[in-house]
Write a structure and sequence with these properties.
single chain; seven-stranded mixed sheet; about 350 residues; Rossmann fold; elongated; 12 helices; 13 strands
Length: about 350
């Protein structure tokens, strides 16, 4: 098999030789290291779907850590290996060493723990995308450049493109899928983020949702609560009391949240795990960015995702977001007619 790589990464002699002799049916054991939270687990799903397509006979193990168990894609692998990240150093080292030899190792994490696991695991070939290029020679036979300007889920697929694999587009996440013609007239808002500074203030969200409820009367406006105690919708209670089309939706587990999200018209949020869930269900999104580089979380292979951000990095204002929402809704659901009915005097 040809190594489909030129100047876009790192390839040593062992990696080139392995690729030249690769027969996919002979690959029996694959280890994928992915130690990450909810959103990045969602972005991993297309890689696992395509990995199974490329190596249908292989036993695929996903290695993660005990800290990140929510949304682990255990439905797409044969085994989940959980590293003990909370025990003693001796227990953690034992956990790192316990995995047996594999044919192929993918390090999709590039953390201190994943690098040590890569070093301690025997494999015929090791692939990764370290942020520091010097680690390629120490750890990997194939190294991929990691881009901030392409959707993370697509970047992961570069590992398989080196082997000549042709991924499906739009990406397949093996999740409930949004159907535009059946979408309920529901706009979902998720006003939280793992790092508070990445999201608008609660007062900004309150003003945005109240004005959206007035100017987009044909839609229900639903604030989705998160799993953390601080991710409560109480700050919107007065707005919900004043508007019949505003509601606060309690926390849902992933099995209920995924189909509910897929049935919605659009999600409005910042860089969050919930937004990654919407991307995974192909639900339209309006992303709000001012700290995070938007391109890494903004798929361009389908027309249902937009990003609101300013070139100078200023925080987008209420009117920026409402305009983006209007344009997205009218582009995706033209049969519903004009989405926005601006108030006579805008705040």
């Amino acid at each position: 098999m040809k190594a489909w790589i030129e100047k876009g990464g790192y390839l040593n002699n062992r990696g080139r030789k392995w690729l030249s002799r690769l027969h996919v049916e002979r690959v029996r054991r694959i280890l994928v290291i992915r130690q990450c939270a909810f959103g990045d687990m969602m972005a991993t799903r297309p890689f696992l779907v395509e990995l199974r397509r490329l190596f249908p006979q292989a036993h695929i193990t996903l290695s993660t850590v005990s800290k990140y168990q929510y949304a682990v894609p255990d439905d797409l692998v044969d085994e989940v290996h959980v590293l003990d990240s909370r025990g003693s150093l001796r227990e953690q080292l034992h956990s790192l060493r316990q995995y047996r030899e594999v044919d192929v190792l993918f390090d999709l994490a590039d953390t201190a723990r994943s690098r040590l696991q890569t070093l301690l695991t025997s494999a015929r070939v090791k692939l990764g995308f370290p942020y520091r290029s010097g680690l390629n020679k120490l750890l990997f036979d194939v190294g991929i450049l990691r881009s901030d300007f392409h959707y993370e889920a697509e970047v992961l697929l570069d590992f398989l493109k080196i082997m000549g694999h042709k991924p499906q587009y739009p990406l397949e996440f093996a999740m409930p899928r949004h159907q535009r013609a059946l979408a309920e007239p529901r706009i979902v808002y998720f006003p939280y983020a793992a790092v508070a500074e990445k999201s608008l203030s609660q007062e900004s969200w309150r003003q945005l949702i109240e004005q959206a409820a007035t100017e987009f009367p044909g839609y229900r406006h639903v604030l989705l609560e998160g799993h953390k105690a601080e991710e409560s919708g109480d700050f919107l209670a007065e707005v919900a009391a004043r508007h019949d089309n505003v509601e606060i939706k309690g926390r849902m587990d992933l099995e209920r949240l995924a189909p509910w999200m897929a049935a919605s018209s659009v999600l409005v949020s910042g860089d969050t795990g919930v937004r990654n869930l919407a991307l995974a269900t192909h639900t339209p999104t309006l992303g709000i960015f001012f700290m995070t580089v938007p391109f890494r979380y903004w798929p361009r292979y389908e027309d249902c995702h937009e990003a609101v951000f300013h070139r100078d990095g200023q925080v987008p204002g209420k009117m920026d977001i409402l305009q983006g929402l209007e344009e997205l809704l009218e582009r995706l659901y033209p049969e519903r007619g004009k989405a926005r009915q601006p108030a006579s005097s805008e705040a």
